[in-house]
Design brief:
With 462 residues, the chain is an alpha/beta fold. 32% of the residues lie in helices and 25% in strands. The protein binds 1,4-dihydronicotinamide adenine dinucleotide (NAI).
Length: 462
């Protein structure tokens, strides 16, 4: 039996970042992971592989649509799907091995196998029981199932199966117009599939600033994605490798059927805590299965903590990472802290969509008076040169104090651009602070500055 200061269950972005920080702060640390590779859902079957396919398919799109206009002549490349999948697998391997290297460098032990907690202070992995002063659950999430829909990962797939299809399908029906559905739907649309997205609500990407969501849907439609909003999927039947998706329109209860070669179920994720033994331990969970924690990530059982997708809050890798660092610092006697008001969200379609802080709808509901500063990428020289003029930056600032309350971007590199606004918000900046900061020309970032200017006396280039 080995003895540790901290044992973390799960090596996803929450768990592995937490482990490295614990080790850096002098705590003897081990991570339990049952997969063959480190990195959890994000690195193995989520964020990283999907980004590889998004990148490859975007390159194809550029070759098909924009190369000619730039004077790059010749036939657009054809898709070698096998090679694209091995590029994706190679990318995963580089990342997961990177974490193995970081564990060795920081002297973090990898306890291989699936862990359970027989009692506080003990973690069982296989036949061995290890001791730990502190146990951190970072066990992540799994695909939520839908009544009447059985995922077989062949014809009816989750995001995991969608990253491993045997070929590019002719037609794919995506259930759920959230982040996963739209990212992977975009991939297959660009690779030549017909893509139809069926969404329960009357708008895509619930929770997103409504103006951005509308523009986003229009942009995706222009790219050829089809949408059926306000429709509840009832069932999916498969026969001979094909599927029939039955859905009901919410407005009139009428029933419709859509044929598909592949059905992607992207209707959300739920906390994954199977096999940990939480009930026997008395660790409290919510109705949605989330582990209940206090402001310092402590569960209802002393010495057991939880972070990431298995607790409350947005299911985002970077939120889990920040919580991992915060709990490591707390356990090392420091003051770990996460500012939940400044957690960016990014959708890696093309154009990208990014947001931080409040939406207009939230500000209206709270009765907060605000200014809106908007700037279109059509007025940005760099974007024009790069065929990336679609989209805009929108900054919401307090009407009285000019403090930035939220920002929403649809456009090129939105996922990177959002971060200067995150830093500004973290420092409690006013829109004027951003507007008075010199931005290099020609960059996409100038659009952020122009939007900040638009909160005050007005932008220059519109
Ligand atoms: P999601 O919660 O983003 O979207 C699910 C969508 O499915 C919602 O719009 C919902 O209204 C719809 N829906 C639910 N039941 C339905 C039904 N019966 N018929 C039709 N539509 C239905 O969930 P998603 O896309 O599966 O993602 C899961 C989690 O993973 C999210 O928390 C997301 O933030 C995270 N994620 C984040 C990524 C990123 O940051 N780029 C990438 C991938 C996932």
């Amino acid at each position: 039996m080995s003895s540790y200061d901290v044992i973390i269950i799960g090596s996803g972005p929450g768990g592995y970042v937490c482990a490295i920080r614990c080790a850096q702060l002098g705590l003897k640390t081990a991570v339990v992971e049952g997969r063959d590779t480190l990195g959890g859902t994000c690195l193995n079957v989520g964020c990283i592989p999907s980004k590889a396919l998004l990148h490859a398919s975007h390159m194809l799109h550029e070759a098909e649509h924009n190369f000619g206009a730039m004077g790059l002549k010749g036939k657009a490349p054809s898709v070698d799907w096998k090679q694209m999948l091995s590029y994706k697998t190679e990318t995963i391997g580089q990342n997961t091995k990177g974490i193995e290297f970081l564990f060795k460098k920081n002297k973090v032990d990898w306890l291989k196998g699936w862990g359970s907690i027989p009692e506080a202070g003990k973690v069982k992995v296989g036949d061995e029981t290890h001791q730990a002063k502190h146990i951190i659950i970072a066990s992540g999430s799994e695909v939520s199932t839908l009544p009447g829909v059985e995922i077989d990962e062949k014809t009816v797939v989750s995001s995991t199966g969608a990253l491993e299809l045997s070929k590019v399908p002719n037609k794919i029906v995506v259930i759920g117009a959230g982040v996963i559905g739209l990212e992977l739907g975009s991939v297959y649309k660009r690779l030549g599939a017909e893509v139809k997205v069926i969404e329960f609500l009357d708008a895509i990407t619930p929770g997103m600033d409504a103006e951005i969501a509308k523009t986003f849907q229009r942009t995706l439609k222009k790219q050829g994605l089809e949408f059926q909003l306000g429709a509840a999927v009832q069932s999916v039947d498969t026969k001979g490798g094909k599927a029939k998706v039955t859905y009901k329109l919410r407005k009139d209860d009428s029933e419709h059927v859509e044929d598909a070669d592949i059905v992607l179920v992207a209707t959300g994720r739920s906390p994954f805590t199977d096999g940990l033994g939480l009930d026997a331990l008395g660790v409290e969970t919510s109705e949605r299965g989330q582990i209940k924690t206090d402001g310092h990530y402590a569960t209802s059982v002393k010495g057991i903590y939880a972070i990431g997708d298995c607790i409350d809050g947005p299911m985002l890798a970077h939120k889990a990472e920040d919580e991992g660092m915060a709990i490591a610092e707390i356990l090392a006697g420091q003051k770990g802290h996460v500012n939940y008001g400044v957690i960016p969200g990014v959708i890696y379609t093309h154009p990208e969509v990014a947001n931080v802080g409040a939406t207009e709808e939230q500000l209206k509901e709270a009765g907060t008076a605000y200014n809106v500063g908007k700037f279109s990428f059509m007025g940005n020289g760099r974007a024009k040169a790069n065929f990336a003029g679609d989209g805009f930056v929108k900054i919401l600032a307090d009407k009285t104090t000019d403090r930035i309350l939220g920002a929403h971007i649809i456009g090129p590199m939105a996922g990177d651009l959002i971060h200067e606004i995150c830093v500004a918000m973290e420092f409690g900046a006013a829109a004027e602070d951003l507007a008075r900061t010199c931005h290099a020309h020609p960059t996409y970032s100038e659009a952020v500055r122009e939007a900040a200017l638009a909160c005050g006396d007005g932008p220059i280039h519109s």
